[in-house]
Design a protein that fits this description.
The chain is 91% helix and 0% strand. The protein is elongated and about 145 Å long.
């Protein structure tokens, strides 16, 4: 019996069975490894796609920032050129001969300022005269509000004249740019 078992185990049948079983399990192991490899490739591809989406979004943000910077630089360049043009016009005004039209053009700002100032003084005088006639009949809170309003009105007029005269004129700082 032992010889029969040994001859069966040593024969070609058992070798074929063992070879077939190991080949089957080896093939099954290869299939499982291939599945894991394919899953890992899919994960890697999804990760690469996500990274590319982030890169694309960052490039969009950079492009938007570059566009904003270009707009700011363009407006700065335009403003600088406008200031240079104004400075050149004022320099030409200061050096050029003054004919009748030029004198009239140069006198517009002062004459207009005098007219507006005189009109504001007349209006302030009329309002003050009218207010003076009813001042005693007003309540103290109303008097305080009117005084504050009057001060604010005068400061508003002064700031309007100051900005009209000085804010639109080129200064030494704008010439240095």
């Amino acid at each position: 019996m032992l010889t029969a078992i040994l001859s069966f185990l040593g024969g070609p049948v058992i070798g074929s069975i063992i070879g077939s079983a190991t080949a089957y399990f080896n093939r099954r192991l290869d299939v499982e490894l291939k599945k894991h490899e394919m899953e890992q490739r899919r994960l890697d591809r999804d990760h690469e796609i996500a990274l590319r989406r982030v890169d694309i979004e960052m490039q969009r943000e950079e492009a938007k920032g570059k566009a904003e910077v270009a707009v700011i630089e363009g407006s700065y360049t335009a403003e600088t050129e406008r200031q240079r043009t104004l400075a050149a016009l004022h320099a030409a005004d200061a050096t050029g001969p003054a004919d009748g039209v030029d004198k009239l053009r140069r006198s517009v700002r002062p004459v207009l300022s005098y007219i507006l100032t005189a009109g504001a003084l007349v209006l302030n005088g009329a309002l003050t005269w009218r207010l003076w006639s009813v001042w005693d009949s007003l309540h103290a809170d109303t008097q305080n509000q009117l005084i504050l309003g009057g001060v604010l009105w005068v400061l508003t007029q002064a700031s309007a004249v100051t900005s009209y005269w000085f804010a639109s004129r080129p200064s030494e700082f704008s010439k240095l740019r």
